[in-house]
Structures are given as C-alpha cells and as structure tokens.
Amino acid sequence: MKKKWLAGWHAGRYTRWLAGLLGLGLLLFLTDLLFPFRVAPRYSTLVEAADGSVLHAFLNADDKWRLYTELDEINPTLRKTLIFKEDKWFYYHPGVNPAAVIRALFNNTASGRRTSGASTITMQVVRLLEPRPRTYASKFIELFRAFQLEAHYSKDEILQLYVNLVPYGSNIEGIKSASLLYLGKPPELLSLAEVTALTIIPNRPTSLRPDGVNKRLIAERNRWLRRFDGLFDRQTIDDALNEPLTARRREAPKAAPHLAIRLRGEHPGVPILKTTLQRSRQTAIEQLTRNYSGRLRFQNIRNAAVFVLNNQTMTVEAYVGSADFSDSTDGGQVDGIRAIRSPGSTLKPLLFATAFEKGMLTPKSVLYDVPTNFSGFEPENFDKLFHGKVTVEFALANSLNVPAVQVLSKMGTNALVEKLKKAEFQTVKKQSGRLGLSLILGGCGVTLEELTTLFAAFGNEGRFEKPQFLRDKRSNAVAELVSPEATYLITQILTQVTRPDLPNNYAYTYHLPRIAWKTGTSYGKKDAWSIGYNGRYTVGVWVGNFSGEGVPELNGANIATPLLFDVFNTIDYNAPANWYQQPDGLSKRLVCAESGQVPSEFCTHRIEDYQLTGISSTLPCQHRKRVWLDLKKRFTYCTYCMPADGSVREEWAPNDPPELISWFENRHISYEKIPPHNPACTRVFGNTRSLLISYPVDGSTYRLNRREQNRLSLSCQAGNDVAKVYWYLNDKLLQAAAPGEPVFCLPPAGKVKISCADDKGRHTDSYVTVIYE
Description:
Strand order of the largest sheet: 7-6-14-13-12
Strand content: 15-25%
Shape: elongated
Structural class: alpha+beta
CATH topology of the largest domain: Beta-lactamase
CATH class of the largest domain: Alpha Beta
Low-confidence stretches: none
CATH architecture of the largest domain: 3-Layer(aba) Sandwich
C-alpha cells in the first residue's frame, strides 16, 4: 500500500513539474508575443568601392558613427579576444550565466554595494539596445530580454550586434567605426595588438580614448595581452607587445560624395552600399577634374563633371559630380551627372543612326547646308557659316545644324522622341508633347548620365542597358536601341580625326586610345559636352557653370574634349587596338557623288558607299535632267511648245532645289543655270514643289510700328529655271521681281494672304497675321 502511495506521489510530482514547465513556457511565449523585443539599431550608411574599401561614411539619424560590421569582418582574432575578455561562456549559456549571477548577487549583498556584475555579451547587447537605470528591476528586465534575444537570434548574430553597438566615447559606436576612425582600416585587417586596444577602450572610453600618444592605452593593452597567455602563442603575444600604436581620431572617408549622397537617398536604411566604383580610378579622375577645372577658372568656367561606364559590364567605374564638392562659389554640391542641361548637338548621332536604319540615308547621301526656314525656325551653324552641298558623314563629323534639322523635319520629331524615351531620357518623356525641330539642336533637357548611357549603347553595337551602380543589383534588361549596322556607320564617322571639333592642343593626345566621340555646345554657351566611347569604356564630360552663366569661350571641342582625352588616357592607356567589326547586314555599293543615290545613266562620277542590305533606299539619282533648247540655247522647250524642228536636246541640266539656288544667288556663286522657258509658251505648270515662300512664315504673327512705317519683307526660293516671280497681297498684284530680289510691302492689319507665282505658272500662298502698334 505504501509503495503504491509513493509511486502515485512521485508520478503526481513529475506531472506537476511538467505542467509547471509547460505553464512557464507558455507564459514566456505569451510574454514574448505581448512584449516583443524589437532589434532595429539605426546604423550609419557606409559606401564601399568595388574592392570593398570604404569610400564614404555618413552619421546615422542620431548623429552617431555606428558603422555596420558584417559577420565576415569579425576575424578569429577579434572573436577570440572579445569572448575571452567579455564572456568566456558565451557559446554555452542561454543568454544569462547563472553562476555569474549568483556570484555577483552574493558579492554585492555581502559588501552592501555593487562590486561586480554578471552581464553576459547578450545582456550587454540588451542594455545597449534598451538603456535603463542601473537598478535590480532593470536587471530582471534585462534577464528576460536576454532570453528573448537568444530565442530569436543565433550566437553569431548576437556577437555581431555587440560588435556593432559597443560604445567608444563621444559619438563613436561599434568596432568598425572605431577601427576606421581611430586606425584608418577595416576590422578584418586588425592585428592582435590593435584588436586588444579596441576591445578595452569601451571599459574606460574617456581615459583610454586614442590621442596619438596613447601611453595609457598601450599600458592597458599590454596588461591584457599578458593575460592572453594560452589563448594565443607566446611569439604572437610578444610581437603584439612590441607593436607600436598609432591610433588617433581621423576624418571619416568622404570620397565620391555625389554618388554616396545619391545612393543613400535611393536606398534608405541600407547600412552598406557596395558600389561598382573602382577606387583608384575614382580618386585619379576626381583629382584630374579638380586640376583641369582650376585651369579654366581664369576664363570664368568653374565646374565640370565626369561619368565613366564600363561597356562590357555596364558598371559605373567613376562618378565625379563636380570639380570640388566643398566649393561654394559655384554650387560644388550640385550633382552635375544628374543636373538637367541642354545637350547641344550631342543627339545628332542618334538622329542619323535612326535615319540609316529607316533607309532614308547612307553616309554619302547629300544634304543641303544652306539658310532654310522651317516654319519660322531658321537654324544656324556654330560658326555662322554654310557649306552648300554636304554628305551625311561630313554633316555629322562637322556637327552642322541645318542638315540635322532637315533630316529631323523629314523623319518627324516623334521618331527621335521615341528613341530617346527608349533610352530612358526622363525629361524628354515629360516634355515629349512640346518638343519640336529645335530638339536636335539642344531644345530639350538631358543629364550627363543619360547622354553617357546613350553613347554606351553605341559602344555596345546598339544594345541599350541602364548603368549599374551597386555590385549586387544587376537585373537590367537589354534592348536594341539602334541596329548594329546603323551603329557601326555612326562609329566610323565619329572616329574620324579630320574634323573641326578636335581641341587646339590635339598634338598632346598622340597616345590616345582609339575612340569615337561627339561634342556639343548649348545655346548661349552654357554647357560644353564631350562624350566618347570604344569597346571598353564610355566617358561623358560636361563643363560649365552650375549657375547657368554662359561664357563666350565655352565650347565642347576646346573646353570639354581635352578633359575627355585626359580621362581616356588615364583609364585606357595602351589599350588593345581591337576595333568594331563590320556587321553582316552592311554591304558596299557605288553611288552618285553628286547625290549619294543609286547612279542613273547620267551619273559619271561614282563613289563607294555603305548600304543596309534590303533597307537603304534604291531610288535612282535625279540630280540632273534632260532639256530641249532652241538652236542658240537661249530658252528651253517643253513637250507642249517644242517645234517640229529647230531644237536640240541638251544631255543634262542641274536639278538643284530652290533653297540651294537661292543660296548660290545670294552668295554670288556661279552655277549652271537652265535657260528660261520659251516665252511664247502658254502652258501653265501646276507643280508647286520648286517655289517656296521663305518669308513671311505661314501661320506667324508680325508686329509692325505704324509710326515708323515698318514694312514686311518678302522673299522666296525658286527653281533653277525661274527668271521672274510675281508677288500678290490679298490676291492683288504687288510687284514683279527676280527670284532673289528683296521685296517689301505695307500690309493691312489682321489676317493677310501673301502669294507668290513664278513665270512657269507655279504658285504658293502664306497666311500671316499683322498687328500694328
């Protein structure tokens, strides 16, 4: 009976113990749910270069240097030293060391004061995360929080938290902060002597703070090193005892400030931003840009920005947002790589590449660089000169404006805008509904980053990919922006060295690696651009003033290109001579030298040109035409008035457009003229293509001063065969004149119809509004 009772009693005791444990566990679980321990320390932002070295560091939101230490940065020496010094049983207890608690409680009770603590590393982490008054109540809360921390985090994660939060006095917290700011190196490179010094500073952060002399710190360090006997071998300890200590407070790293600020804003809360910047390259180009900008200051040009892309990986290797971040005279803190500026002529390669792949043009196609009015828009070249007939490759290599506007007018602005949208030009996307022909001459907003990325697409045979700033963020899609064939033609043109946008001191670039490049200068000479690329790199350079002040000497060729060449000589000196190979979709053909079109029977001068097989236009050349003349070659006949005999066929006559003939006439340049048409012919031609009213512009409004008797100027562009034109004002004859002769009129107020007819019966109209003031 007694044995049964005892057995029942024991069974009941075990059941009560089990129930108690389950109840305690349930209580702890519910308490953990009700009072969760939120571990969310606010770290400083650290920006690293591609090799892992620190480029830039920021204070955290509490104005503290709390740099995040990764697990792999806690080397074995640091781990062993910390655990030996702070908590030898760290890997064995559940967050609280019972033996240490009992010992501390006994000692403190016996002495009547606090003589020793029982804090484990886990409990120290709790105290650092949730500071409380040093009371017994606070200690019990710390014990509970320590159990919570151990339940949710691994030992290595808890040690990592301790390493990140341990205070070093002033506003420095964490081993990594102390290592960089006191020793100038990351924690994984610390020696035993340096590790020991850093682990003891938190015990007496005021008296042991590094000051350059460090006598007290060295003495305390050596005292602890001698206690490590058995933890490390004797020789290692002896070497550490003899190692000097050059610890002192250093400035936080501040390289690549513009990119660092940008990335911190784009990735809030990320403690370490691992960039693709090449540290040595970034440092060299920062210095290069600062020195070059300094040499331009006497010309009142105060700033520059440089953006370097690796074409093979599309990673950003250098990012210099201004000549000097600390310079307040011209907004040194402005990020010139993201600043919206006018692109000048830098979009012309994309325009002509688009025209190539649409089959509109080939490199030898002829355009007309003459004064032309595009519905009120009259572009001029940079040098105020015109060149008459030019090829596409000449127009692009010389950055001529009128041919570019001529091509955009025929192609349509929307075609170029869509390309720019595809290339992620953000401001163009916003402005797309308002952009006109001035777009190709800089009438839009772009950034240096956008332009450089666009030219990187040329460097990658037409494939567009957004730049990569962070090492672990490569997820960009690749899209074909321009066909490889059109890209190859553009690259060949932009590689020419017989061009006007070479800097004046080009001779010093003898060893420059082979590159293709394009310059640009914005209206008002506020922005100078030079963008270059080869198979390895694309470099974008902007030079100017962030204030927007224009400078007469500012231009892409002589101001921006020298810096571009300097950068290429720095990053790609003695580069391999490999160049782009001609794509299979390109072939060569003979074209007429006069027009760049497929030769007709009368084209005697033929030259070789590229063509996009199956795409380039195959229309035959029409630069000359057959005409019938009288025997004395005084006038021409049409089929309507040609006599049965007494006429002769002239093999060919020029078929030039009116704008070119008008330029010939105004410049007194001799050209082959077609004799006037038979005056006895009454035939009326309905063709209006060879007669254009260049001024006044159709649809425009003109303000005239009645007191000063301002008159409205009339001018037209007529065909080669026109001898006289007739001007009409509201359908009333005003005056007969030669095609190039200036005519003036005093129109009535309101809407006015102005008409022009030539001696062939062709006519055209222009409607304008006149307001008198």
